[in-house]
Amino acid sequence: MNRQIQLLILSALIGCANVARAEASEAQAAATPFYVWQEELTQKPGALLRQEPLEEELVIEEASRGVRILYASHGWDDQLVAVSGEILLPKGSPPEGGWPVLAWSHGTLGVADICAPSFKGRSERDRKYHNKWLAEGYAIVSTDYEGLGTPGGHTYLHCKSEANGNIDAVQAVHQLGLNLSKRWLVFGQSQGGQGALCTGAYAGASATDLDFRGTLATAPAVNWKERFMAGRADDPNPFIAFSLLLGRGFEAFEPTFEIEETFSAKAMELMPLTDSLCIGDLMGVGMQANLNQGESLKVFPIGKGPGVMAAAEKMEVPLTGWSGEPVYIGQGSADPLVPFSDVLSYSSALCEQGIAVTLDVYEGAGHSGPLNQGFDAFSAWVADRFADKPADNNCHKINEHKN
Most exposed among 90, 163, 191, 352, judged by the fewest C-beta atoms under 10 Å? Predict the structure, then answer.
């Protein structure tokens, strides 16, 4: 398979095939006055700071309207930060009690401000997926995550930061007067699958004024500590774009991390591109570089880099502290980005904590497979959560599969 075809396949996997290359002058475009909060932040997490209508091109087909928001949240270091996001409302009249709310935790888009979905918009894959949920009558709240769109580094894959971003976004939109239900559920894909699980782990204790119903995660990125200590130096690194983003994320939230002592000179030459390119273009650069794992790193495996395992600890999804809300995970068996074995292991460990977990495995499916194929099952499960029906689980099958 030649490199051009391989790049097209990889881009399709994450739904970013049509991401445009960012001009250098555009790299700061998302840091417009709306995204920059100039005053001292004294508000409580979840406080709405400002709002404005979404541009028409960002309001997808099944939405009646969209609103961009800036709100207060706790950042990676528990300090107050301003985080951006948006809400899309369905068409028609809301049901009694208001529109039920789904909080979308988005997948990897990049760390440059222009990659924030409230500024750039959704990928075609995510538009199709979200249009289905809007047509079912759910309002969709989406956080951009800490440092994506707003000033400061994006804390890529920091578990608690992602959870806070989701929870506080839901609290903020209730201040818009949009006739929303207090009932809500989190869902997400890839980075966002991890973010959704993180949200489920913290929502019970952090959002007591809301009515949290459960977690739907597809292709969730888990088991980072094991992953960072695995692999071979001569393995190809077609996903070096993600390695570069990890480096930028570590810089944002792990003070002990030393980027130049972890990444090779060849990789460091590419690192500045993370500040202006979104994931589709960054993947193209990575493919052209044609580096293997050893050539990408100064130390191998990456877990031996200074501060990397400390960062990994902050990326891991907790197994304890859950309030008992059910979890539904969809995972492709042939996912090249999120190994099935990692998701199976995490699902089994969560079952051991007494959480009602349903793991649906899509045989032969890649990274976006469950999101594309599982909507009917997901929709039925979500509807049951809002209808107060008890949640089933398949923990016995998960453990059998693991054993």
Answer: 352
